[in-house]
Every structure is written in C-alpha cells, then in structure tokens.
C-alpha cells in the first residue's frame, strides 16, 4: 500500500483499520508483563510508567517523530554519494501539519507508527524495572520516540537508504522490536543491576522472581492478539500485501509464537526438571518478535522454524546475559525483543522466498545498523540524561519499593508483606 | 574500554555503510560487510565487558 500507488480498496482500508484497533492489546499485554515480572512493591509504578511511556511516546511522535520518519514517497532530504542519491531523513512538517487525516495510506501509516512507537517505548521499561525513576523513564522515552525510532524507521519504511539497498521488514522486527530491545540493553547497562542481585562474594546471581505469573501468562494471550493486528497492518501498509495475504500473516505469526513457547517449555523442562512459567512467556513473546519481519514472506514451515529457534535463543540468552553479562533485565527484554527481533530479520534474509539474491546482505546491513548506530546512539543519549539527572532511584527508594517512594501508595496495600530477602544489609 | 567499544561499534557500521555506497561488485561488498560486522561484534564485547564489575567491587 505505497502512497504513490493507486488508492487501496475499501475492503483493504477496513481491514487495516480493524488490524490497527487490535494493536493496543499488544501494548496492554506488554505493560502487564512488565508489571507481573517486577516486584509487588513496584507494581503500580510499573503500570503507571507504561501509561506515561505511551503518552510521552505519542506526544514526541506527534511533535517531531513523524516529521523525521515520514512515509514512502513523501518529502525527504538526500545525500549524494558515489553518484547516487541516498535518502536519510524525511522532511515532513512538525506537529503533523499538512496531513489530510483521512483514510489515505500516509495517514494509516501515521496511526500504525503512533502505536508502534508506543509499543517500542514499553520495551526498555522492562529492563529498568524496580529502579528506574518515572521522570527519567519519561525523558528517555521522549528521546526514543522523538529521534532514535523515527530515524531508523525512516531508513527502513520511509524510503530511506536501508530500503534503497533492499532491506525488508514487514511489521517491525528491526524498527520496533530490535530498537526497543537495544535501548533496553543500554538502559540495563546505565542503571546497573538491582541491589542484592549480584553478591560481592561471587557465585550465581540471586533469582528475583516476578510477583504475578498469572498476569504475565494472561498477557501473552493479549500480546498475541495485538500482534496479529500489528503484523497484519504492517504487512499491508509496508509490505504491500493484498487482503488475502492476511491469512498467511496470521498463520505465520501464530505458528512462530507457538513453536517458540513450546521450545522454551521443552528446554526449561529438560534443564530444570519442570517448565519455567516466566521463560515460557518470554519464549512466546520472542516468537512473536521473530515473526514480525518476515510474517508476510515466510512459508509456514519457515515461520515455525524461526519460532523454534527464537524460543531456544530466548531461554539460553536470558541466562547467559544474567550470569555472564551481569545484565539485570527482569523481563528479559533484551533477549526477547533485541535478539528475537534480530533473529527474525536474519531469518527473512536467509530462509524466506523474497526472490532477491542480495537479500541476505541487505538484512545483515540492517542488523549492522542496529548494532553500530542505534545502540551507540541510545546509549549515548541515555548516558547524557543520566549525567544531567540520575536515572536510577536512590537506594532508600529501591529498598522501600517504587510504589511508596515515588507514588506514595502501594499497589496491594492490604496483602503485601515487604520482604527484603534480596537486599544486602 | 567502554568508549573504545562504542567507537568500534560505530566504526564497524561505517565500514558496512561504505561497502554499500562505494563497492558495486558482490564479492568485495560481502567481504567488507563481514569485516564491519566482525568489528561490531568486537566492540559489543568490549562494551559488555566494561559493564561487568570486578568480583571484589560488586554490589
């Protein structure tokens, strides 16, 4: 559904709108996962942070995000190098000025992107659970939604240089999942681990389990529903999929998530003697993240394979990052979204039938851009924010819990016993 | 080590970028892309290592 192409049929427009209406379920699901995998004494804070992140992301994208991202065929700035023009940033007006705000492809893309940037903004929150100040998280989200995300998304979806070299991503494996996941990595590094996570005597890190597994597992169903809409809308708007292709998109999305969840259950069963609920949930979401880039191009068998590998990758990398990388990521955001998303992008290059021999190299270039541009940019901006005003809550606030410390009231005032088993005295 | 790692990440990306802009043939382009990615992996390793605290000073 390229804006320069003939207008879409009414049926296609209605289907895209229906898909867009499902996407907020994915946002709600991720917010619930963040809350459930955190401590009970920071539960309200986690949910409010998600609401604030969505609000800030929408505001930043409205002010300047869409102006930077634009849409394919829209006005853009170019650089001439080696005799060729390279499109690097859009030239849309700020504050969405000049848009008719109707059911045109450009406006449907705007709506999808507003939802996508909100989804991406929730991913770093999971890595900063139990120690990230609300104000700092909001400021960091503004930078993500107003600069980092739109710039990379323009390169992929706005006719930018990555699109020019043949990089393909139907629904956000790179711009949404990997950008969010790599920002989560930067946040986990800058904030440092939660108090008591790593002992000064060495040994294995302390396990700090989430406080509500039911929330987390129920959220997996919400996220799946939302993802069907996200992948469906992305495939039609960015992949040019006809209405009938939505069947393939839905099948591939579901197969990838299912196989990833099964892989995570089987691996944790084999390794620990019983399936681990939070890792199974992580595997499920990792499968969804891996499906995003290629949902339109995979065959069902490839989608199942991509999910299987994603589930295994999530289980092993969560543990590896925790133990050897000393990255305290309570929700596994880095493994689920960054590694799952990047795996999906590469799987599209190597296993999907795109018909282009340069596809694998283009996909690798996209991953190289994520690692060599997005990660350093996100790290530098958040490091600068941390210098201006510390992002991490004071030690007393962490001990007390962010609910009481930042909001003045707990999420479960009548039921929670404040355990401090994980704190060093 | 952290700054060096970040610089290596950016340098690796610049090599990948240059390969696509300046090289037309597939084989040299692929070689340069592989080299750029290798440098990025090195940089990522350095940044990750710089965030692992020495045993005696852990929290």
Record keyword descriptors for this entry.
heterodimer, A: 425 residues, mainly alpha, two-stranded antiparallel ribbon, 66% helix, B: 59 residues, 0% strand, elongated
Q: How does this model look, in words?
A:
The complex is a heterodimer of chains A (425) and B (59). Chain A is mainly alpha-helical. Chain A is 66% helix and 3% strand. Chain A is built from 14 helices and two strands. Chain A has helices at 10-36, 43-69, 105-127, 134-157, 161-164, 173-191, 213-237, 245-272, 277-294, 300-323, 333-351, 359-388, 395-400, 402-407; strands at residues 76-81, 84-90. In chain A, strands 1-2 form a two-stranded antiparallel ribbon. In chain A, a hairpin with a 2-residue loop joins strand 1 and strand 2 (84-90). Chain A is globular, with a radius of gyration of 21 Å. Chain A starts with 9 loop residues before the first helix and ends in an 18-residue tail after the last helix. Chain B is elongated. In chain B, helix 1 (2-22) runs antiparallel to helix 2. Chain B is mainly alpha-helical and 59 residues long. The longest helix of chain B is centred in the middle third of the chain and has 25 residues, at 26-50. In chain B, 78% of the residues lie in helices and 0% in strands. Chain A binds chain B through residues 81-82, 84, 86, 161, 165, 189, 192-193, 195-200, 202, 324-327, 358, 361, 364-365, 367-369, 371-373, 375-376, 379-380, 424, and chain B through 6, 9-14, 16-17, 20-22, 26, 29-30, 33, 36-37, 40, 43-44, 47-48, 51-53, 55-59.
